[in-house]
Amino acid sequence: MADLHRSIPSMVDGLKPRQMKILFCSFKQNFTKEAKVAQFSGYVSGHSVYHHREQNLAGTIIGMAQDFVGSNNINLFQPNGQFGNRHQGGKDHASAR
């Protein structure tokens, strides 16, 4: 049951719980400037009681910033850097450091 809760998006806003925590922390931090993915994932894991691996969180942040056709309907973060391209399906993104 917990796996279904984490993998099916909410009907209200279309976000999964992990994505909701990331957006909550971006609004809490007044996230308007650029930041590295690893720094932001550390902030999110510290302030939103995220007890899983930070690498999973970094992958979600990268997925929320991808703007090519086939990744998301609308990217929620501005992709400044290498977040992958359409030809590889986003799997060629840069390392989160």
From TrEMBL:
**A single GO molecular function term of this UniProt record:** ATP binding
Which coenzyme or cofactor does it need?
Mg(2+)
| Pfam families (UniProt xref) | DNA_topoisoIV
Task: Write down the chemical reaction(s) this protein catalyses.
Answer: ATP-dependent breakage, passage and rejoining of double-stranded DNA
Q: Which domain of life is it from?
A: Eukaryota
- The Topo IIA-type catalytic domain covers which part of the protein? 8-97
Name of the featured protein: DNA topoisomerase (ATP-hydrolyzing)
Q: What does the entry list under GO cellular component?
A: nucleus
Q: Which principal EC class is assigned to this enzyme?
A: isomerase
Q: Which UniProt keywords apply?
A: ATP-binding, DNA-binding, Isomerase, Nucleotide-binding, Topoisomerase
Give the EC number(s) under which this enzyme is classified. Answer: 5.6.2.2
Q: List GO BP terms, alphabetically.
A: DNA topological change; resolution of meiotic recombination intermediates; sister chromatid segregation
